[in-house]
Q: What sequence folds into this?
């Protein structure tokens, strides 16, 4: 009986180790995620450097190290599409988001509510959920180039002034227009760049992160 229990325990341990190995390999492959939390200061992310550091911190906390992470954000002098490397990019479950920059900014990308996962592999509330958190800070046009006056002062503002262009990670809006379904360029924030203003339009100061390798 003891022998049977020992064999069973050994088999279970081996199975758990194999499962852990798969999870680790998926995590190591992760090169895209949506931030699970924002800065807590609305669109004030500490500029692009602060946003990049936030991406890196979240990835490392999730167990993914040794990668360079950049936020998918445009500024008055940079385009988001030029900050994220060449691809391909995969989410925390190993699902491909896009092969390259061109496919990411086309209808061929794999971004949906189910694939735009956090660094923890979790989904983010979208339209119809409470609270709705589908507005992602980007500051970009649909092609990933900058809208200079919609970056909340290059991601340093958290008050009633300024505005940020945002996209819908769940590809869902008030209607079936291209803008409503856009992951990176749906509408600008209303009422400024504060946490309250972002929440008022369905956001929470979240944004996309990409590994640049």
A:
């Amino acid at each position: 009986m003891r022998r049977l229990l020992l064999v069973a325990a050994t088999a279970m341990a081996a199975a758990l180790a194999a499962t852990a190995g798969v999870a680790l390999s998926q995590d190591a492959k992760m090169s895209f995620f949506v931030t699970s939390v924002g800065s807590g200061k609305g669109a004030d992310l500490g500029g692009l450097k602060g946003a990049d550091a936030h991406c890196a911190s979240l990835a490392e906390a999730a167990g993914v190290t040794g990668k360079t992470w950049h936020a998918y954000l445009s500024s008055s002098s940079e385009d988001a599409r030029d900050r994220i490397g060449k691809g391909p990019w995969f989410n925390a479950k190993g699902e491909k988001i896009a092969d390259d920059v061109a496919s990411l900014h086309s209808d061929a990308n794999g971004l949906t509510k189910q694939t735009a996962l956090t660094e923890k592999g979790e989904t983010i509330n979208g339209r119809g959920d409470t609270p709705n958190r589908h507005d992602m800070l980007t500051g970009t046009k649909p092609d990933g180039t900058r809208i200079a006056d919609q970056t909340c002062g290059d991601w340093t503002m958290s008050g009633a002034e300024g505005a940020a262009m945002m996209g819908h990670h769940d590809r869902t809006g008030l209607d079936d227009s291209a803008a409503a379904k856009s992951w990176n360029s749906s509408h600008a924030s209303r009422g400024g760049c504060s946490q309250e203003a972002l929440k008022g339009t369905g956001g929470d100061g979240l944004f996309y992160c990409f590994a640049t390798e």
About this structure: DSSP finds five helices and eight strands in the chain.
